[in-house]
Amino acid sequence: MSHTPTPVARHLRRLLELLAAGAPAEDLGAVAVEARHSGATAQDLSEVDQATEAALRVQTTLRQHRRREAELTALFDTAGDLAALRDLDAVLRSIVRRARMLLGTDTAYLTLPDEEAGDTYMRVTDGSVSELFQNLRLELGEGLGGLVAQTARPYASPDYRTDDRFLHTGSIDAGVLDEGLVAILGVPLLLGSGSGGQVIGALFAADRTPRMFAPEEVALLCSLADHAAIAIDTAKAMADARVAVAELAEANAVIREHSAAMQRAEESHDRLTDLVLRGGDVSDVAAAVAGLLKGDVAVHDGSGWPLASVGEQGGAVARGTEDDGATEEEAAALIEVAKSSRAAAHAVFHDGRWVCAVLAGQELLGCLVLSGRPDLDGPDRRLFERSSVVTSLLLLLRRSVAETENRVRGDLITDLLTAPGRDPAGLVARGRRLGFDLDRPHVLLVARTGDAVRERLADAAVQYLFGCGGGSAEHEGDVVLLLPCDGTGPGEAARIAAGQLGQLAGAPVTVAGAGPAAGPRAIADGHAEALRCLRALHVLGRDGHGASVTELGFLGVLLGDMHDVDGFVTATLGPLLEYDAQRGTHLVRTLRAYFDCGGSLSRAKEELHVHVNTVVQRLDRIQALLGPDWHTPEQTLELQLALRLQLMSGAGRPNGRARERPGADARFFRSREAPEGSLPGSP
Predict the structure, then answer these.
(1) Does the N-terminal peptide bond of residue 516 adopt cis geometry, omega within 30 degrees of 0?
(2) For the packed helices 587-596 and 633-649, what is the interaxial angle rounded to 10 degrees?
């Protein structure tokens, strides 16, 4: 049996269908209108109205539940974004976009503080169309955002333009007006809770029409702001962690590098120390340092002169030679740099080279010089400085040995000078035991200085002879040095010694040289000759210089034991003798006649039986050969002495021709002299 529904039931079923379909409130209200038009009774209309009200309440509840569900979904999605945080900007953009979507506003934006500028700036915007608004900056307390940041509380303004609860500024109002915003809701981004919370920014939602924001909307925006604060704090923590990890990695690398450098320095120090203990030389240490540092290394003594040089130049450099690559000025300049290194207690970079002082206490023993490494870094620089310590140890050991050897050799030198004939064979044997082969040629030097620095001169001599195989001794107030002959003449050796001993002693030192001499007697004779030369240097006002008797002209002939007349005549008249021999001229005879006649041209031309012009021409030729200073008093004296010696001994004559017989010169030369100009090349 079928049952026909009543009119009320039909309307109620219609309400349920509309409610299930999510119809709007207007459709639900239309059911009551339809019931009235259908002629329903008053009781039925009352039931339909009550059911419509209930349906509207259910619809509102369902709408709230759906909204809450959407909000919770958005919050869960945001939490998921935070859990997989990779890009802070992407997370913040997502939060701002969801705030705009959930609140249904025209725009949403987020501001963060700028610690360097001391204000806040727009970090993320969504729905904004104004560039002026997007580039706004707010000071603390300015505008709605400034009030939110200052009070750490949310604020909602239904109409920003007329709201006087916050400070309006021209720039902010211009930006808001350019964006067209009216209603604005702002909430703080808080880290922590309660009064101790820290505001790190603000989140905003805004409409371009007036609007009252409901409490649940404020709460929703606060929840999103909390998530944004967590995202920012997490990103900052991750950034700090990355920085910390990077710093730890860098520190670890530094520690490893330092450890490796320390190990390398320790190994290098052990290697150098072992080299010294095994009797290595200065050149061995220089070679080891050059190999460790990949550069050119030179070791210089306390006067700046090179002891050894290893690298591209190669080999050891003997000091005091012309090819040692150093001059007195360069050596002095290098010592000044070494003093700077001593004052700084570190190696110093100067003129493309690293220089490190080699010290014994504060005494400057010398310096190490490294070339080819302008980029010397910390570990290598410390290795270079440590090498100077090993070098100082080596130099101190060598100096100690040298001083001991020099004292023993000094006793031998004293015996050579005082009693050379007592036991010559015994002296030679003693010399061989001390490393002296007295039968080989030696250069003997006698050095003298003022009384105030005489003690320093003996120490300076020991330093000067360091490493060269010579010896020194104090004798009768002077210092005598005996050096193996290396091809350097006694005069040159004396000049080199005078310069370097003067630097070491800090006062002028006069040095006279003699030799080469071999054997005890010759060495003693050389000492006597050097003493006479030393006295001559003092008489000539040449204190502080060095020379030998052969370099003192006729004084050397007078002072020297060998009386080298031939050498003196040749050195003085050599150009004239050679010219006469090659061209058959008579320049030597003309010069002798000129001097014999007291410099009178007329008397000389009568003596020579030639025209006065011929005498003048010959004298011009003599000046061209001897130089413009030939007629100075000193030169004149030497020329006259040489002419006299040549006339008396035949010294300097070509082919060893016998000397002229006295009284026969005028007739002899008149008979042989050809007319002027008859011979090729005659003056």
Answers:
(1) yes
(2) 110
> 424, 521 in Cβ contact below 8 A?
yes
DSSP conformation class of 529 = H
CB-based contact 539:529 (threshold 8 Å): no
Looking up tokens 């939490």 gives: 79
Bridge-based pairing of strands 296-301 and 183-191 is: unpaired
| Predicted local confidence at residue 656, as pLDDT | 38
Type of residue found at 64: Q
pLDDT of residue 81: 60
Provide the pLDDT for residue 124. Answer: 92
Q: Report d(CA 15, CA 420) in Å as an integer.
A: 148
Instruction: Give every CB contact of residue 395 below 8 A, 6+ residues apart in sequence.
Output: 282, 358, 360, 365, 366
pLDDT digits (tens, 9 = 90+) for 365-399: 788 888 888 787 777 788 777 777 777 777 777 77
Q: What region does 309 belong to: left with phi over 0, alpha with psi -120 to 50, or beta?
A: beta
CA 364/CA 307 separation, integer angstroms: 15
The rounded distance, in Å, linking the Cα atoms of 568 and 181 is: 116
Which parts of the chain register pLDDT below 70?
1-7, 64-86, 193-196, 261, 267, 269, 275-280, 312-326, 401-411, 434-435, 466-467, 539-540, 553-568, 645, 647-683
Which residue, among 140, 89, 139, has the nearest Cα to 110 in the 3D structure?
A: 89
Model pLDDT, residue 208: 94
| Distance from C-alpha of 222 to C-alpha of 71, rounded to nearest angstrom | 12
- Whether the CA torsion 265, 267, 268, 269 is positive or negative: it is positive
3-class secondary structure per residue, 53-79:
HHHHHHHHHHHHHHHHHHHHHHHHHHH
Of the candidates 255, 143, 117, the one whose C-alpha atom is nearest the C-alpha of residue 206 is 143
Strand-pair category, 296-301 with 306-310:
antiparallel
pLDDT of residue 179: 93
What was the pLDDT predicted at 674? 34
Rounded to the nearest angstrom, the gap between the alpha carbon of residue 557 and the centroid of all alpha carbons in its chain is 57
Per-residue pLDDT, 69: 64
Contacts of 358 (CB under 8 A, 6+ apart): 299, 338, 364, 365, 366, 367, 368, 388, 391, 392, 395
Taking the C-alpha atoms of residue 353 and residue 369, their distance in angstroms, rounded to an integer, is 7
Structure tokens at 402: 């040298």
What value does the CA radius of gyration of the chain take, rounded to a whole number of Å? 56
Long-range contacts of the stretch 635-644 (C-beta < 8 A, 24+): 636/595, 637/554, 638/553, 638/554, 638/572, 639/572, 639/573, 639/591, 639/595, 640/595, 641/554, 641/557, 641/568, 641/572, 642/554, 642/568, 642/569, 642/572, 642/573, 643/573, 643/588, 643/591, 643/592, 643/595
Q: 297: which DSSP letter?
A: E
Question: Strands (DSSP E) along 246-339, which ranges?
Answer: 296-301, 306-310
- Interval 111-150: pLDDT, tens: 988 888 888 899 999 999 999 999 998 887 788 888 888 8
Identify which of 459, 448, 446 has the alpha carbon closest to the alpha carbon of residue 505: 459
